[in-house]
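lol so apparently i was supposed to do this last week
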Amino acid sequence: MGTASLPRRKFDVVIVGAGGSGMRASLQLALAGLNVAVLSKVFPTRSHTVAAQGGIGASLGNMAEDNWHYHFYDTVKGSDWLGDQDAIEFMCREAPKVVYELEHMGMPFDRNPDGTIYQRPFGGHTANYGEKPVQRACAAADRTGHAMLHTLYQQNVKARTNFFVEWMALDLIRDSEGDVLGVTALEMETGDVYILEAKTTLFATGGAGRIFAASTNAFINTGDGLGMAARSGIPLEDMEFWQFHPTGVHNAGVLLTEGCRGEGAILRNANGERFMERYAPTLKDLAPRDFVSRCMDQEIKEGRGCGPNKDYINLDMTHLGGDTILKRLPSVFEIGHNFANVDITKEPIPVVPTIHYQMGGIPTNIHGQVVAPKNGNPNSVVGGFYAVGECSCVSVHGANRLGTNSLLDLLVFGRAAGNHIVDSGLKKQSHKPLPADAADASLARLARLDSSTNGEYAQDVANDLRDTMQRHASVFRTQALMDEGVKKVADLAERVKAIGLKDKSKVFNTARIEALEVDNLIESAQATMVSAAARKESRGAHTVNDYGDTPEHPNGRNDEVWMKHTLWYSEGNRLEYKPVNLKPLTVESVPPKVRTF
Ligand SMILES: Cc1cc2nc3c(=O)[nH]c(=O)nc-3n(C[C@H](O)[C@H](O)[C@H](O)COP(=O)(O)OP(=O)(O)OC[C@H]3O[C@@H](n4cnc5c(N)ncnc54)[C@H](O)[C@@H]3O)c2cc1C
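anyway here it is w/ flavin-adenine dinucleotide bound
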């Protein structure tokens, strides 16, 4: 069977991913009358965005004086000066607008007595350039992502977006000029493969958090968009930067939102000490995530961890009172009960830093267009291809994302990409002709699985991969561990090529889907390990013991050599670098300085 025999469907735009970013983009397109298809491996409202708890960052100033300049400053500082300041300015300025839009769509935000949107403090968000925590996170109890995703889904249904539910995109289709012409996709129910042709293709496939063993992420977060982009020759940016969230439930991985600390929860060590006061005298428990995670790890390493094995930290909410907890953190209350057997109104809950978010991804500009180096231009636009949300790297989060800035990123850049596509006049354009071999790579991947007679189970290889990443790319890294990790992941890549599929049936064969996902996990893992081992400094979430605090390089950050973005290419495991954009759109640059809190 070859490309020519596959069924085809044509759309103006194909969007892969029905999370917050994909559905914000599709809404813009459908409202403009474009023919849009949105693919998702799961029902749209089960995308990982639904799990977001804490809030959306926007300087509405409803509960304390705030403005977008403070938000801009906090985000640049939070990124450890790896974020691009044009993109950060754009996001922080647009933030109030996209939040009010969402409110007008019917998003059920919590309210203040005067009717305005309730806002809570969050890590790293401050007033007056770092002076004190500020209330900036717009929240719907601790179910903000749930409320947002349902709001966007309803608006899309109204706008007549076409949803392809339980469809898995397999590979990008590019022509000889490098333009993107659509995707190949598998209909899970039948096992049939289709070609979905598009004038413009947009990836909104979310993160690859499942490359780690202990993760707050949904099982579907296997980095499919990253794998598809990498296999088609597009580099991945800054993949060494992975965020550990300070408060995953010990031994369960389930997230307890930073909103807990926003509402006043305190981290305590085995002595009951509020140790964050020692590390971050101003922001205390509300310092950014990379910083708090490292402090927790340090406490555990120095023997002040809690429990019989001294291997976790206690998150104490008992002083907040049952009423506040049930009103502002009802899901956290349930999680405590279900995953830790703890009544959080009466006793502390055991937590550990847990993998949460990828700062890197498919490189884009502020319009969501995918960019890659070409003819000496590091940011040359890839024709017909956009990416938004966690799978993209625009880069607003740099080396460390501030909490609430992801939901914001989805809204701002989902909307911006939608507008940019509408303005490009797609309606009048015709589809470019497909190359004769458009689907050959996907068909070869499927044929290999279908002809396998033995070989390892996909899940066994995936589990070894997750354990390797957990050990070799952790909260604190060492050069030796990372170098060893590069070799181990390369060995795992060989094992991935020899995975076997025992059940060859077509209808809803989840074993085939898992095997196909491992092809994407391995690209994401290699990008992470290789990029990490090459970055010989500490910055944001990439903290390497070998590159510690020195007078020339406070906190181990080396701006002269390493203030640059990594670009990893799958072919040959090759790295390139491109400069960070320190120039905002209209305001003055925030010059690099040492991060203290
Ligand atoms: C537990 C948790 C809590 C969080 N809380 C917050 C918070 O309070 N505030 C905040 O700002 N951020 C938070 N984050 C981060 C934020 O929620 C995510 O970064 C964001 O929701 C990702 O959205 P997305 O649109 O990029 O992708 P997702 O919501 O992950 O959606 C990805 C979509 O892509 C589809 N897809 C993937 N691969 C394929 C394929 N091959 N074929 C077809 N479809 C595919 C999936 O089916 C899905 O529809 C949290 C994250 C987690 C895990």
